[in-house]
Amino acid sequence: MAGGRDTLETAGPILSAGISTFTFHDDAAPVLQGMELAFVPGTFTAVLGPSGSGKSTLGRVLAGWLPPGGGGTLHGFLELAGTRLQFGSGRDPRINPAEWGRQVGFVPQDPAAVLSTVRATVAEELAFGLENRAVERAAMKATVERTAALLGLTDLLNHHPARLSGGELRRLAIGCAIVTEPRVLIMDEPFASLDSAGTAGLAQLVRDLVKGGTAVVVLSQVVDAPLLDAGTWHVVVDGRVTASGTPADLHPGSGLLPSGIRRPGSLVEGTLAARPRGSARPAVPASVPPGTAPTVPALELRGVSFDYAGGGRRTPGRTRRGGGPDDAKQPQVLRDVNLAVKPGEIVAVTGPNGAGKSTLLRQFNGLLRPASGQVLVRGSDIAGIPAGMVARSVGLLFQQPRDQLFERTVLREVRFGLDSLFQPGEAAGRALEALAAVGLAGAAGEHPAELPASSQRLLALATVLARKPAVLALDEPTVALDGDGLALLDAAVRAAAGEGSAVVLVTHDLAYARSMAHRGVELDGGRLAR
Predict the structure, then answer these.
(1) Does residue 21 sit in the same domain as residue 134?
(2) Do 353 and 495 belong to one domain?
(3) Burial class (CB in 10 A: 0-12, 13-18, 19+), 243
(4) CATH code of the domain in which 515 resides
(5) DSSP state, residue 222
(6) pLDDT, tens only, 160-171
(7) Last residue of a domain, one of 198, 222, 253
(8) Distance (Å, rounded) from C-alpha 26 to C-alpha 29?
(9) Whole-number Å distance between alpha carbons of 439 and 437
(10) Residue 500 CA from chain centroid, whole number
């Protein structure tokens, strides 16, 4: 593919849209307006925009996941495979999501949203769309195996989807979208949480799909390296396309990319750039009187080992359809892990998808308990202490905000549980202080579900910061953050460390890890290495 263009571009668009306005039913102002977009077979297009720009809404409208009528009011048209649907006349047509989905595959920003949730293995999830199309069993099995091989999922076919890492889950969602060979593939932040191997594999998959005639559209607030291969970039700000052109046209010096769109390898323009390899790491902030070294680590793991044998949804002795024995011995996810983190120290944990990094963080607050070894917080073993009690000292930011947010307003979300720990006045003050730290002070009355993804992640961080825990554990904190959100994360984490919190962050963003952490460790094969 040369810049995403080949001879297939001489054909007409397979998918196009003319959006005068698109407005959610309970909003006065349109979220999308003045857009004219067309996607030709065999092309690769990137839609770039900061958090809240409307690009995810655009993707859902194009994919039929947010159909006009039920999802909102559209004035304009959508055209797929030569059939144009005109909206805004008062007698609008209805989109059949199933029929639309036969030609347009979609991977949402939250990969779990694409899964059926009723299938017990990765193989069954991949087969779900094929079963709905009554594909013959032998052909179905061959297609599932071929798709799994394309996405590095072959060794995971018999695993339960709930046991996958964030990167593995994203690859599964992509597999579910392409297994039926749609003519258009729309992916929202597909490179988020992928390790280097996963990123390279997905980039190659995109090249192969484009070469085969698929129109590929990627929505992103990060200029990931594979997006440089796109033939066209569209920049979306406040629901409008503000610039279009090739990657060369929209280079960083063009002034056409807003600061919220970030590039890997650097933080927001005007803030700390990623520190080169081998350069000095920042000094550990003083968390005790000057000249006094802390004698007890804020967090310590001593010989911690863990596996999932017998846990989760597994039923001893049962054999899954198309899979191996369900009671097979599970390999150890963590093996004799030793780690000590000082107050005020920031430690980055890196490693490939599926290495057990999220599992490691869940040992810190007792959500998961080691098969052997000890976890100590401020010198005390947490064995036997309920996770809810440990959470007073160990704050955990989950990889997916949906696992952490449930209240009716942003302020209620942050204040939840604080009244049982502090006096009412202090609880309110802590909640407001935490919201201010993540730039959400003006959103206190909004519903968390209505926030952009970047703001949802920052809100989840605020719920942890408000308790001012001794240990702050962050699972892929940069995922879904645009450039402005990354600057807020950076400031909040440094402030927490400066006040004495020990910070452990799991990330695939190696540039961010080098810029933030005092030291880094790698988890691979169940073991930690410097």
Answers:
(1) yes
(2) yes
(3) middle
(4) 3.40.50.300
(5) B
(6) 998 899 999 999
(7) 253
(8) 9
(9) 6
(10) 28
- Does the pLDDT of residue 174 top 50, yes or no? yes
Domain edge (last residue) among 199, 226, 253: 253
Name the pairing type of β-strands 346-350 and 502-506: parallel
Residue 310 falls inside a structural domain: no
Task: Decide if pLDDT at 7 tops 90.
Answer: no
Distance CA 458, CA 127 (A): 36
DSSP states along 260-319: TSB-TTB-STTSPBPPPTTSPPPPPPP-SSTT---SS-SEEEEEEEE--TT-TT--TT-B
Residue 330 falls within a domain, yes or no?
Answer: no
pLDDT tens-place string over residues 213-262: 999 999 999 999 999 999 999 999 999 999 999 999 998 889 999 989 98
With residue 337 as reference, give the H or E element that holds it.
strand 334-341
Q: Would you say the C-alpha torsion 428, 430, 432, 434 has a positive or negative sign?
A: negative
pLDDT by residue (tens digit) across 133-173? 999 999 999 999 999 999 999 999 999 998 899 999 999 99
76 and 195 housed in the same domain? yes
Tell me, what's the pLDDT at 474? Answer: 97
Please name which of 221, 220, 219, 230 lies closest in space to residue 261, comparing C-alpha atoms.
221
Per-residue confidence at 118, pLDDT binned at 50, 70, 90?
A: confident
Q: Is residue 176 part of a domain?
A: yes
Q: What is the pTM of this model?
A: 0.84
Query: What percent of the chain clears pLDDT 90, i.e. is strictly above it?
Result: 73
CB 85 within 8 A of CB 95: yes
Question: Which position has the token pair 């949802």?
Answer: 456
| Same domain (yes/no): 221, 361 | no
Q: Is residue 298 domain-resident?
A: no
Same domain for 48 and 186 = yes
167 in Cβ contact with 194 (< 8 Å): yes
Range of the domain at 495: 342-368+386-529
